[in-house]
Amino acid sequence: MTKVKKPALPSIGWREWVKLPDLGVKSIKAKVDTGARSSSLHAYDLYQFERDGEKWIRFKLHPVQRSTHEIVQTEAKILEFRSVRSSSGKASLRPVIVTNIELLGLRWPVELTLANRDEMGFRMLLGREAFRQRFLVDAGKSYYGGKPPRKKKSKRR
Fold this sequence. Notes:
The protein is mainly beta. The protein has one helix and eleven strands. The longest helix is centred in the C-terminal third of the chain and has 4 residues. InterPro entries: Asp_endopeptidase (IPR008503), Peptidase_aspartic_dom_sf (IPR021109). This is Retropepsin-like aspartic endopeptidase domain-containing protein.
């Protein structure tokens, strides 16, 4: 009996630029964390509401690290509320949404918990459930998917 070889998985680095098209996020730097099970997205000004009998959440986020200039306001259907333990060991109940993510030209749905990550180094954390059986992580490299084009600064006269 011959063993069928699985196709090789593409590699990603320990940090990658990703897109969240359903949320209107053109690019956000994510830390790829094999030690975290779930993924988390920076969110603030969370407002829960009902639409057609289902729970939804409206929120804002700053997609650029160490900057509050760019603000994206968006909304998504709430999948559930989940108790998540932070790296410091503190548990909190967070809303969970499902949205599409794009990386290396691939698009797939991921579950994201919403939390204020202003004090964290990355506005998004990509946990292993999001990339399991899709990618191999090369912990020594970054940005296999490339970097987004830089915005041109306007010239002052």
